[in-house]
């Protein structure tokens, strides 16, 4: 029997720590692979598939894509991915705190807020980049056949809602931390 049962982590805390280590590792994998996958996608995807990704119809790209269009498309696509990678770095730091058993600390709340803000920024930048990509993809078309597509899909709306929920949860946790600190000062 453990002489000091209150010092032993609870089963719930052990699970939180274990899951947090796994999620921190998953964040590292995504941080490394997302940019590479974006560039690989732009190097290999068919023009029709690229067009569909930016809300254009499949037959909109009328000429084979030039190498510069693929490179520019990949670079433009990396802009929202950079914000997403930055968000994942914040999430990884938060999970690192959780894995160390530091759950209700100000730093974790700050990381969650930054995560939410950067996910929202990724969505906003992604919508702008999608419009720019529609121009890049159709620049080889004859005059009068070039297009600009502006679109907001359910994925963008969901991601903004998700970011807002995480930001609000972090704010609520932060308020709880403030109340706990205030109560401790009275004791």
Question: What's the layout of helices and strands?
Answer:
Layout: H1 11-44, H2 47-53, H3 67-99, H4 106-138, H5 154-186
> Can you tell me the residue ranges where pLDDT is under 50 for at least 5 consecutive residues?
none
Compute the separation of the termini in Å: 32 Å
- Strand tally, please? 0
* Class by SSE composition: mainly alpha
Rg over CA atoms, rounded to whole Å, is: 22 Å
Helix fraction bin: over 70%
The main sheet comes to: none
Mean pLDDT: 89
Q: Give the overall shape.
A: elongated
Strand proportion, as a percent range, falls in under 5%
Number of domains: 1
- Number of helical segments with 4 or more residues: 5
Order of helices and strands: HHHHH
Summarize the structure in words.
The protein has helices at residues 11-44, 47-53, 67-99, 106-138, 154-186. Helix 1 packs antiparallel against helix 3 (67-99) and helix 3 packs antiparallel against helix 4. The model has no long low-confidence stretch (mean pLDDT 89). By secondary structure, it is mainly alpha-helical. It is elongated, with a radius of gyration of 22 Å. It is built from five helices and no strands. 75% of the residues lie in helices and 0% in strands. The relative contact order is 0.13. The chain has one domain (11-186).
């Amino acid at each position: 029997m453990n002489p000091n049962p209150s010092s032993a982590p609870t089963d719930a805390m052990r699970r939180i720590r274990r899951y947090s280590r796994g999620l921190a590792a998953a964040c590292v994998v995504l941080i490394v692979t997302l940019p590479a996958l974006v560039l690989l996608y732009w190097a290999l995807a068919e023009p029709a598939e690229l067009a569909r990704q930016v809300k254009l119809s499949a037959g909109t790209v009328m000429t084979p894509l030039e190498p510069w269009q693929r490179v520019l498309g990949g670079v433009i696509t990396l802009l929202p991915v950079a914000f997403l990678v930055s968000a994942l770095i914040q999430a990884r730091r938060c999970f690192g705190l959780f894995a160390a058993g530091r759950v209700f600390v100000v730093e974790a709340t700050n990381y969650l807020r930054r995560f939410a803000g950067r996910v929202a920024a990724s969505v906003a930048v992604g919508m702008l980049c999608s419009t720019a990509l529609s121009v890049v993809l159709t620049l080889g078309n004859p005059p009068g056949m070039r297009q600009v597509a502006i679109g907001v899909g359910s994925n963008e709306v969901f991601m903004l809602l998700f970011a807002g929920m995480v930001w609000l949860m972090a704010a609520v946790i932060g308020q709880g931390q403030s109340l706990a600190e205030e109560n401790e000062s009275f004791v």
